[in-house]
Amino acid sequence: MADAAADPRTAVVETVRRLDALGLNRGSTGNVSVRAQRDGACGCWITPTGMGADGLTVDDLVWLGDDGRVDGRWQPSSEAPFHRAVYAARADLHAVVHVHSVHATALACLRRPLPAFHYMVAVAGGCDVPCVPYHLFGTEALSHAVAQAFADRHACLLANHGLVAGGTSLAHALKVTLEVESLCEAYLKALAVGEPAILGADEMAAVIERFKSYGRAARR
User: Fold this and answer.
1) Count of alpha carbons within 13 Å of 194, Cβ hemisphere only?
2) What is the Cα–Cα distance from 203 to 209, expressed in whole angstroms?
3) In a designed cystine with 117, which of 32, 196, 205, 206 is the match (CB 3.0 to 4.6 A)?
4) Radius of gyration of the CA atoms of the chain, in A
5) What's residue 13's pLDDT?
6) Residues of the chain with pLDDT under 50
7) Is the pTM of this model over 0.90?
8) 14, 79, 179, 181: which is the annotated catalytic residue?
9) pLDDT tens digits, residue range 175-191?
């Protein structure tokens, strides 16, 4: 993936194309954004509404300034409100990915959270991936629900809708997206046999603590 510091728009376009290639989004479903600065102003670049990966270029992305400014030749994604809500709620998150991936969406349509049936659920920052109540897409009600879920998580399911994931970078947000989708697939398959055993709060707390040093370079 391209270095977002060089041009965050390039990284957004590459992320959209990868999501499409992996089958996590199809056509114009889903959206991606990344925090950035433009001419000294803070805000984010977001994908336009109704446009898929095919033919998407950096010039198609829309600028959303923290000051309320919107600039671009297209309208921003209809889900721009919850992207902004996540950034407002979490200063540490710098990218948001929204997908209608098959397994996460299937679980969301059951209106069930993803519980700690597997320790890797901790990749989303806690002991589950919550499922927020259904709200019409693009509404402030949905944005508020997503912001509440992200208070202490990196992902949430949207009832009868899909998945939202955030990260400290686009690469991190994509990693969370891929992992949660895979976990949703495994959970749904386990449910077809019976109710999976759920890890306890102490067990998940130990995993979360271990994750704090996971994948980091050795101290010298």
Assistant:
1) 3
2) 10
3) 196
4) 17
5) 97
6) 1-4
7) yes
8) 79
9) 999 999 999 999 999 99
